[in-house]
Amino acid sequence: MTVAVCERCAAPLAPEAAFCEVCGGAVAATLPDELGDRLHFGQSPASWVAGVCDRGAARERNEDAMAMAAVEPAGSHAALVVCDGVTSAENSDVASLAAARAALAILAAPFSIGLGGTHSAQVAGRRTFERAVREAQQAVLRESERNVKAPGACTFVAAVVMGPLVWHSCIGDSRAYLIPDEGKPLLLTRDDSMAEMMIAAGMPRADAEDTPLAHTITRWLGADAPDLNPRATQIEVTSPGWLLVCSDGLWNYASAPQDLAQVVREAAEVFPKPLALAEALVQWANDQGGHDNITVALARVGD
């Protein structure tokens, strides 16, 4: 009988393991094996975590990538990573998949926080995200070396659930939202985009995101990346709801937290399970036009 081994450290893997118990690397079986599998695929590494990645209605290929790991019981630990390939770079589908896999290999294992209390936990969280971004960047650069004439680039957003705490970070304009069943929804991340710069200068969000330069990103993973500081922060979940990590193929149609929350809450009434809800949100985005690739990664938190 063939024993599965970790791609990162070659340690034997337990059956149906979500991550390696030795190095924390993500198990490849939870990820798409080939680029061709990415036209539409779903993942559900645990009962409370799932995601769907889809090429959308208008694109020929899917340049989004998604990777996730989670363990039971619900709310204990999960890592969700979404990377969106930069359309102007030819091999961005390859870059985004490499980045998502590399980042998950770092984020899949619970942070080691030692005995230093709150400050130690914060330092450990920031350092773990810094490592994840470095590994993702190196993975993109390695793929670019293989395709020198057409190097790829991508965005990065990730969220890690550790009990009541959610760590999150992004580079580019993929996002993380916290949507409670009741109460005020939150956009956790801040875009690195021209639209965000216009919003900071005082332009209303709806107007800024409707300009021709709105989706021009100011940070990315790949060649000539200007800044790789992941700006990792944390938030405490105090009530039941959904952690949503997504590409702009979803939030394009409902950017403001209250607008996207309405879509999620209405869909969750019909599809309360994470995988079915992710499928419903992807279908909703396609129904709005599906002009871009769509990735929806969900974790049920706060229960």
From TrEMBL:
SMART domains to which the protein is assigned, alphabetical: PP2C_SIG, PP2Cc
Domain PPM-type phosphatase: 91-301
InterPro entries hit by this protein: PPM-type-like_dom_sf (IPR036457), PPM-type_phosphatase-like_dom (IPR001932)
CDD domains named among the record's database cross-references: PP2Cc (cd00143)
Domain of life assignment: Bacteria
Alphabetical list of Pfam families matching this protein: PP2C_2
Protein name (database record): Protein phosphatase 2C domain-containing protein
Source species: Ammonicoccus fulvus
